[in-house]
Design a protein that fits this description.
DNA polymerase, domain 1, Rossmann fold, 2 domains, 3-stranded parallel β-sheet, two-stranded parallel ribbon, 43% helix
């Protein structure tokens, strides 16, 4: 199971700054807030729920489909940084491969297409598929497991967000943290700077 943003590609460089501004503007317009208030609320819900959307739906009755549509229209090809050898690396990995992302389906498919790896995954399990129970919520994980007919013990989760890995570990999955932090928490089995480094470890 692969997360998408900041796992298979560097979304922090160009995509996340634009996405964050789009979400802040959406909150401003929808909840009639000043920019600094909207930005603080966006960050607050992300810290609590792992996704800004979850807080907006739960506490403000925001239509999740409208939010995702309005905040993910910005993507331009030059914003997606392609990692060399990524396709070759994925081809060498044994087993089934799926994407598990908090992003909307149309965005995830577009990014995978721009990365040139859309055909490498049997399933793209997006936030819509989780019925908006975004990672790290355990319900989204269970929905994915049911969808692919897999047991947690047979799965490996690759993710940049440690809270999502904590949930994966609780379920019994093996966990790989894609991060440049040197110290890994005890619920992380392996830490790598890049998914390409998986070739150097035994999962």
């Amino acid at each position: 199971m692969f997360d998408l943003d900041d796992t298979l590609h560097d979304a922090s460089a160009y995509i996340f700054p634009v996405m964050n501004r789009a979400m802040t503007r959406y909150i401003q317009d929808t909840l009639q807030m000043e920019e600094h208030e909207a930005c603080a609320l966006r960050q607050h819900y992300w810290r609590i729920y792992g996704a800004t959307l979850k807080g907006l739906v739960r506490h403000h009755g925001v239509d999740p489909y409208h939010f995702l549509h309005e905040t993910h229209q910005f993507l331009q090809p030059e914003m997606v940084l392609v990692t060399k050898r990524l396709r070759h690396f994925l081809r060498t990995l044994k087993g089934r491969k799926v994407i598990f992302t908090n992003a909307p389906k149309h965005y995830a498919l577009r990014v995978l297409d721009l990365l040139g790896i859309a055909d490498m995954f049997e399933l793209v399990f997006s936030v819509e598929n989780t019925k908006f129970h975004a990672k790290p919520n355990i319900r989204g994980f269970r929905m994915l497991l049911r969808s692919i007919g897999a047991k947690p013990g047979d799965c490996v989760m690759l993710e940049d967000n440690p809270t999502a890995l904590m949930t994966a570990k609780r379920l019994g999955m093996r966990t790989v943290w894609v991060s440049r932090h040197l110290k890994k928490p005890n619920y992380v089995d392996h830490r790598v700077n890049s998914v390409l480094a998986l070739t150097h470890i035994q999962i």
